[in-house]
Design goal:
Radius of gyration of chain B: 25 Å
Order of helices and strands of chain B: HHHHHHHEEHEEHHHE
Oligomer: heterodimer
Mean pLDDT of chain B: 90
Largest sheet of chain B: 3 strands, antiparallel
Number of strands of chain B: 5
Helix content of chain A: 25-40%
Mean pLDDT of chain A: 95
Largest sheet of chain A: 8 strands, parallel, barrel
Number of helices of chain A: 9
Structural class of chain B: mainly alpha
Distance between the termini of chain A: 46 Å
Strand order of the largest sheet of chain B: 2-3-4
Strand content of chain B: 5-15%
Number of helices of chain B: 11
Chain lengths: ~290, ~270
């Protein structure tokens, strides 16, 4: 780290407005834009290093924007032991960048010594609820703060599942005290791929727990005899997901909302235009709640 | 719907079956039965291909990002084959993609031993050094003028603390020339692989990785200084080969201070 003091981070909660995912292509532009988003979210693992251009860029960005750190590599629901080194690096990043929100996924990622570097689905069983809730408590105790857990997009469901996804997440919230990060695109993708009802999913989630929403694009791919929606974060949010987002706002109220666009990353202007579409809906929600 | 799980190991068993199915080209029937039951085994077996493909693409992309010059030299198709073979022996060990290529140079050295491509492993070592350098902490450098605060009679006892990002890579092959020739979009100029050894210093300065080619004597001196030797001991050790001690020291220090490599002076520990 360079000598001298770092710029002070923006403190306080994430506003109930639209933010965007911070990508390295925009590290400079985001500091200079005339129409800044309300907040930013960064992938925790991209800022694990002791130094380097990405870390220094986030230190600068952090002095201008409220920040959320979103992890993709902890594999909270893995039955094998949690990677303590990874968890320590998450803690170091949290201490360094002081994010207003910290989140991870309701997934697993490693088994028998191999990491798949993907967000793998859990069976919705009592055993998995207890396991994930225990892990979330351990992580929260280690970090000294609450985390949000995000619902997953999935392409398979397990024969052993006993609970709905919504009931599963509600039980994890109840037993761990975590919050929820509701990914509306994931709910849409799951509805199409697995024949689920997103309204029933929303209804099963505790209203108070949803503290952030994700919006993203998806693609379509034929797998065997059926077409699947693939949650690839590589395009604009589709009209159906915007409609589902409005349903989510009606149920959960105005919640900080993030535009996720991680692949084929567009210009900052395109991302900001997507954020503006979310902001319009958030403002209508604020007005209705007033 | 299948019988609900009733033992504490069901989650582990399910994840192990899923992992085997993602790792192999096709899932075995017993694993599919465990995961999907008998009603949906065929569809499950097809849809798990999304995860199989993701795991492979994430691995390949991480390796390509770390080793762009190696990939360019062997071509995308052969690099893909190398990545597949490497993954078979070195599956990802971390939730952080950064570490996927850590064992690649050593694995490549074994793979290419006795072939015309032995130099490829050293090129990969240079690229891994770049990966490490860019992630390292950076400390504020000190200038050559700050030596002035020390009495002349203690100068030879001083050791230099160098930037944490500094990595040293030497090879019997001209790896710096290969690396340098492949830093632009246009086709690389040919490099004579029989041109002999090259010695490289990699450091991240001003948010940019710089790869320097050093004279062999300068490289040895920098190695000694990097290991914590005092200026006196390092020059003595290096000079036995180089002979011209003063010229060597002034040339290397001039470069090291000029590039911001020196971050602190300390009294060297007694040998």
């Amino acid at each position: 780290m360079t000598g001298g003091s770092l710029p002070a981070p923006v403190r306080g909660p994430i506003p109930a407005r639209a933010g965007i995912g911070l990508r390295s292509q925009h590290h400079e532009a985001i500091l200079e834009t005339a129409s800044p988003p309300a907040w930013l979210e960064a992938h925790t693992e991209n800022y694990f290093h002791a130094g380097g251009p990405a870390v220094r860029a986030l230190e600068r960005v952090r002095s201008q924007y409220p920040l959320s750190l979103h992890g993709v590599g902890l594999g909270l629901g893995s039955a094998d032991p949690i990677d303590r080194g990874h968890l320590e690096r998450v803690r170091d990043a949290v201490q360094r960048f002081e994010p207003a929100l910290v989140s991870e996924h309701a997934c697993w990622g490693h088994v028998d010594g191999e990491h798949f570097n993907d967000l793998l689905p859990l069976p919705y069983t009592e055993e998995a609820v207890e396991h994930l809730a225990t892990r979330v408590r351990e992580v929260q105790d280690f970090l000294g703060r609450q985390i949000l857990v995000e619902n997953l997009s999935a392409y398979v469901s397990f024969a052993s599942s006993q609970l709905s996804e919504g009931a599963f997440l509600a039980a994890v919230v109840e037993r761990s005290g975590c919050g929820l990060l509701l990914d509306v695109n994931n709910a849409y993708v799951n509805a199409a791929n697995l024949g689920l009802d997103p309204a029933a999913f929303f209804a099963a989630l505790p209203r108070h727990a949803v503290q952030e929403i994700h919006l993203a694009g998806h693609s379509r791919r034929w797998v065997g005899a059926r077409e699947l929606l693939i949650d690839d974060h590589g395009s604009a949010v589709c009209d159906d997901v915007w409609d589902l987002y409005e349903d989510a706002l009606r149920r959960f109220g105005p919640v900080p909302t993030l535009i996720e666009w991680d692949n084929d990353v567009p210009s900052l202007a395109t991302l900001l235009a997507e954020a503006a579409r979310a902001d319009q809906r958030l403002q209508r929600c604020h007005a209705a709640a007033a | 719907m299948q019988r609900p799980p009733d033992s504490a190991s069901d989650l582990k068993a399910l994840q192990a079956a899923f992992g085997r199915s993602v790792r192999s080209a096709t899932a075995n029937p017993a694993d599919l039965q465990l995961l999907a039951g008998s009603d949906d085994a065929t569809g499950f077996g097809q849809r798990i291909d999304v995860y199989r493909n993701n795991a492979w693409q994430f691995f390949l992309t991480a390796l390509e990002r770390t080793y762009p010059v190696t990939q360019r030299r062997v071509g995308a198709d052969f690099f893909r084959q190398l990545a597949r073979d490497y993954r078979g022996q070195h599956p990802s060990q971390h939730g952080d993609l950064h570490w996927i290529g850590e064992s690649f140079p050593a694995w490549l050295a074994d793979r290419m031993a006795g072939t015309d491509y032995e130099w490829l492993a050293d090129l990969a070592r240079l690229e891994w050094a770049c990966e490490i350098a860019v992630a390292a902490a950076r400390r504020d450098p000190v200038g050559l003028d700050s030596l002035g605060r020390f009495d002349a009679d203690v100068l030879s006892d001083l050791a230099l603390v160098l930037q944490p990002s500094l990595q040293l890579v030497a090879s019997p092959f001209p790896i710096w020339s290969v690396w340098q020739a492949n830093q632009h979009e246009e086709p690389a100029a040919p490099v004579d692989l029989a041109a002999g050894a090259e010695h490289c210093a990699v450091v991240c300065v001003a948010d940019r990785v710089a790869v320097y080619r050093l004279e062999a004597a300068d490289y040895r001196l920098l190695q000694h200084l990097h290991a914590g030797m005092s200026l006196g001991d390092a020059t003595e050790a290096a000079a036995s080969a180089a002979g011209t001690l003063d010229r060597l020291l002034s040339r290397l220090l001039g470069w090291a201070f000029g590039e911001g490599l020196v971050v602190q002076f300390v009294r060297a520990s007694p040998a």
